[in-house]
């Protein structure tokens, strides 16, 4: 028979696992890499930079409008937010799983 606290912990574990899955899906929808500006002969060109194995890969984006630049910056902020939340959730899931492993009913 489960104790009341174990039931609450099990429910919280399920919620945390669901949220972790949603964060991963949201992260996959955002563009990979970050926006980089290069000045070439006095002109500004934008590249999307991401890492593939050990190398940096630059994907040319050309001259971007202010709205497009703002969108990339917002996406970067969302990625940072999701990564931090995902890190906290993973720690929480680890703690909940170890708490539920105990043998005595709480």
Can you write the helix and strand succession as a string? HEEEH
Radius of gyration: 21 Å
Helix content: 55-70%
Number of strands: 3
Number of distinct helices: 2
The main pleated sheet reads as: 3 strands, antiparallel
Distance between the termini: 10 Å
Strand order of the largest sheet: 1-2-3
Estimate the mean pLDDT confidence: 87
Total tally of structural domains:
1
Q: Structural class given helices, strands, pairing?
A: alpha+beta
Low-confidence stretches: none
Q: What percentage of the residues does DSSP assign to strands (E)?
A: 15-25%
Structural overview:
The chain has 106 residues and is of the alpha+beta class. The chain has one domain (4-100). It has 2 helices and 3 strands, in the order αβββα. A hairpin with a 2-residue loop joins strand 1 and strand 2 (43-52). Helix 1 packs antiparallel against helix 2 (66-100).
Topology:
Layout: H1 4-29, E1 34-40, E2 43-52, E3 55-62, H2 66-100
Antiparallel strand pairs: 1-2, 2-3
List keywords for this structure.
106 residues; alpha+beta; 3 strands; 24% strand
What's the quick description here?
With 106 residues, the protein is α+β, with helices and mostly antiparallel strands. The chain is built from two helices and three strands; from the N terminus they run αβββα.
